[in-house]
Structures are given as C-alpha cells and as structure tokens.
Amino acid sequence: MNQINHFINGKFTGPSARTAPVYNPAIGEQIATVSLASASEMEQAIAVAKDAFVSWSQTTPLSRARVLFKFKAILEERVDELADAITREHGKVYEDARGEIVRGMEVIEYACGIPTALKGDFTEQVGRGIDAWTTNQALGVVAGITPFNFPAMVPMWMWPLAIACGNTIILKPSEKDPTATNLAAEWAKEAGLPDGVLNVVHGDKEAVDVLLTHPDIKAVSFVGSTPIAEYIYTTASANAKRVQALGGAKNHLVVMPDADIDGAANALIGAAYGSAGERCMAISVAVAVGDIADTLVEKLAEKTKALKIGNGAEQGLDLGPLVTQEHLAKVKSYVGKGVDEGATLVVDGRELTVTGAENGYFMGGCLFDNVTPDMVIYKEEIFGPVLCVVRVPDYATAVKMINEHEFGNGTTIYTRSGGTARKFTHDIQVGMVGVNVPIPVPMAFHSFGGWKRSLFGSNHMHGAEGVKFYTKRKAVTARWPEGDLGAEFAIPTMK
Ligand code: NAD
User: Fold this and answer.
1) Tell me: the pLDDT tens digits for 172-198?
2) Beta strands 130-138 and 121-127: pairing type?
3) I need a surface site. Which of 54, 253, 395, 399 has the fewest CB within 10 A?
4) Which of 34, 146, 158, 225 to mutate to test the pocket of ligand 1 (most atoms within 8 A of CB)?
5) Domain match, 58 and 74 both
6) Ligand 1: which of 107, 208, 209, 220 to mutate, judged by most atoms within 8 Å of the beta carbon?
C-alpha cells in the first residue's frame, strides 16, 4: 500500500502513528494510506518554518519570483502527472483536473509579478525636509488548510503568494486527496525553493488545532465547509491571528424570460453537474423567472438524462464519482429528503451503476422542480450532482430570495437586457457575480471570495487581496536635519 507522508524541511517524513485511508472513488478501493500528524509533529514543522523564515524573508522579491517562474515551467511539463493524481484520488474527469491546474497556475503567474505587487508608496516632502513611505513586509509563518474538492488549485491560491511575499508556510491539505500538494512541494524544491519555506503536513483536527493556537503562526487561510470555516475563524482570531476562512455555498443561476433558454440550459447542466457538483461555485439552484419554467425544466431533464458518467480517467465523460462512499450516501439522503419535502424529482440518478466500475461511488444527475425556499434541499449545501429549480414570478422575487440565503458565494443571471443585468450586479448580496457566464470564478488578478456565511474575515483570496493578507504595512517618516532642531512639545503638524 502506498504510504503518503509529510514534506517538512525539504524531505518526506513519516509515517505518523495515526493514518487515514485514501481511496480511488472510481473503483471504490483504498489505494494509499496518509499520515495524520500529531500535535508534536505539527509543532516541529512550525519550528522548521520559523527557522527558514529568517533567511527567506531576507531574499529579494525578484529572486523569489524567479523560483516561481521555474516552478511554473516544471508544472507545465508535468500537468499530466498532477492531473492523473487528482483524478485518481478525487475522481473528477481528467480534463477538469487539468482545468483546475491551469486555474491554479494563474496564481503562480500573478505571484511571479511580486516585485511590482509588493511596491509600497513614497511621498516626498510631507513636511519641510521630511519624506514618508510605506512598505509591505512579510508576516512570518503562515498556514493554509484546504478542502478535498480542488486539491491542486486551492493550495495554489495560498502558497505562491504567501512565499512570494517573503513568508514561510505550513499547508494542511485534505486527507482525502493529499498527493497533489506533495507533488507541488517537491517540484517547488526542484525549482530552487529553500528547505523549510513550503512544508506540507497532513492531518485532521489534532494538527489543525495547533495551527490555530500556536503563537508562531501569524495568519491562517482556510477553504472548506461553513461550520469548519466558522470554527477556524473564531478560534484563530481569538488567538490573535489574521484569518481568511472561505466556506460553503448555494449558488443560484437566474434565467430571465428574455434569456436564450437553450444557452441557459446548457450553462446550467455544465455548472450544476460538472465535477459531480463538488465545486464551491457549482450552480445548485436554477431560478426560473416568469413563464419559461416548463420549457427550461423540459430541456434540463433531457440533458440531465444524457450525462456521460464513469471513471474520470477515461476520455469523453462529463463527470466522475463522488469523493467517498459516505459523501455519496449523504447526497442520496438529501435527494430522499427533497422527495419527502414535496419537491418534484424530475430525474432520479440515485440508482446509477457504471459497467466495469460497479464499486465506484457513482450517482447520476438528479433534477428537482417546484423547490421552495423553506425546503432543506434549498437551504443547505448538498455538494453533489443535484439541481433544484425554483419558480418565481418576477425579478424582484428572485433577487429577494438570493439575498435572504445564508450563503453568498457566487450567482449569475442569464438575460438579453443590459439594464436588468446592470441592476442585478448592483442589487445582489453575493461576492462573485456573473452575467451570461455560468461559473463566474474571478481570474487570479482579481480576487476570489464570497459574502455572508461563505467567507469569514475581511480579505478575499489571491490577487491584490492576497498580497494584502500576507503582508503587514509599515509607514516610515524620515528627516535628515542639518543641526539640532530643539525640543518640540506640540504634536508635529508638518507645516
Ligand atoms: P471540510 O470543511 O470538511 O474540510 C476542509 C479542511 O478542514 C480539510 O483540510 C479538513 O481536514 C479540515 N477539517 C475538517 N474537519 C475539521 C475539524 N473538525 N477541525 C479542524 N479541521 C478540520 O471541507 P471539504 O469537505 O474538504 O470541502 C468541501 C467544502 O469546501 C464545501 O462546503 C465547499 O463549498 C467548500 N469550498 C469552498 C470554497 C470557497 O472558495 N468558498 C472552495 C472550495 C470548497
């Protein structure tokens, strides 16, 4: 059995006393065992990262960028190897795995521009013979805790910018698909990153709790479910750390009566069922406005039944399995709940079996119609291939419903009216908004983050927000006087 270990101080270390199984969800078999760090193993890793910070924080932004340029070249050569590892442990189809790597690479590209992004500002002559400037300095050791659903991309939202800013980092990836982060750390070393700057420590709550409380951890970036995001935010903030904790989602796609209905239906199918719905930006609610609902549901039903599902390692498929047997059971139980609540199950994918992969954690797309905002399947994040259609009479009802939802990660509107689109982008209480775009994930040079209970903390991920999160500002005021100026007892007013 393949043993997956920690990567600390440039070396693989382990196994730990406690381990967890790693599965290939397409075949339903354990393929590896991952070490789960004890509190003392995590403390040792933090000590390593603290030591490494002393010299890494003295390097120039340009030399740090050059390591990232080399890393990017290595990554481009080995995209297939990384995508294979993602598909094997997560289950998503190979092309989708490649896609997440490319989206992660955008953050590397942004971080390669760190000499520009880190620039402070300077004012000459703020007072007579006095100049002032601000600089952005590294924080120290920072931590990144990441979810299973983007095992390559989400860690790359964090570590490239964290280290480009001069910090050292401990990454704690999901124990369900840990290999992608190990590969990235190994390749970063090959690109010239000094030992101890990027450390990967696998584990569960025991390891995470050390990151949230240890005095040498200065900032915590988290992406995962809302209950854990809230726990991370409250615990790490109470320990005086900077925190950005991104949580779960329930993303709505509004179809206005004037929209291209075929285009909207296609958008919904890809955004609801891609990656088996295991995306924080997946569309899980279609809001049918006015009299288009019957036509929309008919088109969706036809396309949902036609989804091609199987082992993501094979070509030409739309989606693969769910990540674990437990998660599959949870998603199916939500579908049962929806039926009990009185929603109309137009397409039921619960009984799907895939020939040749009968033990895989597969289910087909499920489509609900006549879902209402009081139902559990509307309120909670299902995180599976389940699309709920809610029928509303008008635009105002659609916007009110979305704004009242507990989550506010992403949303989008399909319309041919510039006026309606403009009003929607202004009115909506959601962090990432699309117009005729199914999944409005911002590019790396913008920043990523939701509103309400989809994000705890004030900084979004990556882009300029990432640089802000991983640095602290220092303001300097300087004078080089000729001769003694004498004592000044009034507060300086820079006349
Ligand atoms: P999760 O919350 O179960 O786990 C996320 C991380 O937290 C993992 O590293 C896990 O080991 C750790 N963790 C789990 N339980 C913990 C505990 N009790 N104490 C400390 N650490 C703990 O999330 P997941 O199932 O891996 O990922 C799916 C979730 O992530 C979904 O809710 C999805 O919406 C969300 N997500 C959000 C975004 C976003 O940008 N908002 C992006 C991707 C995923």
Assistant:
1) 999 999 999 999 999 999 999 999 999
2) antiparallel
3) 54
4) 225
5) yes
6) 208
Q: Give the C-alpha separation, 187 to 165, whole Å.
A: 19
Tell me which residue has tokens 């079996």. Answer: 353
How confident is the model at residue 495, as a pLDDT?
65
In a domain, 491, yes or no: no
Beta carbons of 172 and 199 less than 8 angstroms apart = no
Residue type, 57: S
Residues 344-384: tens digit of each pLDDT: 999 999 999 999 999 999 999 999 999 999 999 999 999 99
Q: Encoding tokens for residue 239?
A: 């320990």
For 37-68, the pLDDT digits (tens) are 999 999 999 999 999 999 999 999 999 999 99
Alpha carbon 344 to its chain centroid, in Å, reads: 32
CA 67 centroid distance within chain:
24
Let me know: does 372 contact 390? Beta carbons within 8 Å.
Answer: yes
Last residue of a domain, one of 435, 462, 489: 435
- Predicted TM-score (pTM) of this structure: 0.96
Residues 267, 251: contact at Cβ < 8 Å?
no
| Contact present, 157 and 448 (Cβ < 8 Å) | yes
- Residues 154 and 230 grouped into a single domain: yes
Run of H or E residues at 70: helix 61-77
Considering its fold, how many domains does the chain have in total?
2
* Residue-range definition of the domain harbouring residue 15: 2-247+454-476
Tell me, what's the pLDDT at 84? 97
Whether 364 and 468 map to the same domain: the answer is: no
Burial 271-309 (b: 16+ CB within 10 A, else e): bbbbbbbbbbbbbbbbbbbeebbeebbebbbebbeebeb
- Are 240 and 259 in the same domain? no
Q: Decide: 465 and 246 in contact? Cβ < 8 Å.
A: no
In ligand 1, the atom with minimum distance to the C-alpha of 383 is 31
Residue of the CA atom closest to atom 23 of ligand 1: 224
Closest protein CA for atom 38 of ligand 1: 280
Q: Which among 92, 98, 95 is positioned nearest to 25, based on CA atoms?
A: 92
Distance CA 152, CA 157 (A): 9
165 is catalytic: no
> Is-contact 467 99, C-beta < 8 A?
no
Which residue from 285, 371, 276 is spatially nearest to 330, judged by alpha carbons?
A: 276
Q: Residue 55: inside a domain, yes or no?
A: yes
Domain presence at residue 483: no
Regarding whether 358 and 460 lie in a shared domain, the answer is no
Whether residue 66 contacts residue 59, with contact meaning beta carbons closer than 8 Å, is answered with no
